[in-house]
Design goal:
There is one protein chain. This protein has twelve helices and 19 strands. Helix 11 links the parallel strand 12 and strand 13. Helix 4 packs antiparallel against helix 5. The chain starts with 5 loop residues before the first helix and ends in a 34-residue tail after the last strand.
Amino acid sequence: MDRVPAAALNRVRRAPSTLARYYRSLRPHPAAELVPQPHPWLRALGMVVVVLLGAWLGLLIVGDVRVPVGPMNTTMTLRPSLAGGTKINVSPLGALELNSHRAPVRLDVNVDQLDPDRSQELVDHPERISGLQQEITHDVEHGTLDLALRSCVAVVAGATALGLAVYRRPRRALAAGGLAFTLLGASGATAYATWNPESVLEPKFSGLLSSAPSLVGNARSIVTEFDVYQQELARLVTNVTKLYDVTSTLPAYQPDPTTIRVLHVSDIHLNPASWKIIASLVKQYDVNVIVDSGDTMDHGTAAENRFLDPIADLGAPYVWVRGNHDSLTTQRYLEHMKNVHVLDDGRAVSIAGLRFAGTGDPQFTPDRSVTPGGDRAEELAGARLATALRDQKAAGRPVDIAIAHEPTAARQVDGDVPLVLAGHLHHEGMEIMKYGTRLRIEGSTGGSGLRAVERQYPAPIEASILYLDRDTRHLQAWDEIRLGGLGQTTAEVTRHLAKENQPGGSPSPGTTPPSTPPASRSGATPAPSAP
């Protein structure tokens, strides 16, 4: 038997001690055990921040797609957003905002330019416009799919790259990319679940006021002619085409002749800029009649009467009721003005196919010699107006629109008329009251007058275009117009449809007032004190 060399035996004897030293080396140094480790929640929060920031950077770098949509060249982009929705930028005219979905991503569509060749084909062959919706639908679907793929790659790549730069570990970087992909998938699922194709029926426009009628479109046509998203999209793009190609032979905006357009203004408060704005709206929207629900003046003195002279040149009949800042002196001056119809004590008048009745405010705030009667005085004035409305209906001449300055008075005609207009509160509002009457409260078309300088931010200038069916004389839709106040130049137009005119909607209680309204109603909702 061969003998084992002594050197080999020594190595075997030393092996346990070598292994012991090796395992001891794997133990952390005692000082290292004193270093605090991050809490798991903090590590998770840090990962989320890295993922979100990386995803955002990825979208900024490569997350857009250039897509031809009909006659226009557009750029589609996904952007992080808390509210979601779609924003269509039509520079330099303005932007349309659609409440298309609710998800943490917003779709931005920038209209870059109008393709002259494709636009000329529409001009030369107008019959192609009828088939434009199919072409646009295909273009949008193709662009959206391409955008979704690019955005997915951009989000995952951005999160992975930033994760690698921050953590310097491939596994953590891949985890960041995987989390970004999961969040994007969840956002897409949320957008799909909340997708609202009818949002194009009620767009919000911000930009040049003169562009709003053509870009937003005609209420009657939208209500009666379009019931699916593809058709609405075609109409929207066609309107934009008309705006861009101003020198072509494409037809200009033409309001539907079966729609009556009423411009509702209120609380001008001696703001001379209001007359130019009203005249512009009358021209742009081809307004049939203007309704002023009071507080045109500030103190109601005879010296202020010359302020009213531009009313004669506004281009449409002017229906007016007295507000609590308008005096009887103001009222008598307007009664002698051409094309002005002053309504008081339930007096009715027929204009542009509609029948109006109204009452002046029973209180005159600037006159300190008169003790204000408060809500009780307003309720009595509203009750007298309601009696006049019932008398008109009994005589076979029912009123379509009632007018009172104070909402407290306006609420007393609930059930006696389809629509009642008011002001006074300096902010807009719309509601259907208990017995079916729709109450529309207008904001201040004068931006609160001199009161605009009393606030930290100037009060906006507000007005509304009301679209009524010429046959039924019921409200179809309305556009809320909001301009920046003193020293500001912003403009917003928001389209609203009456619920009964929305796709799948059923007639609301306000469509047909009750034939036998309650004889007496108490407990009217009080309004705030006079502005």
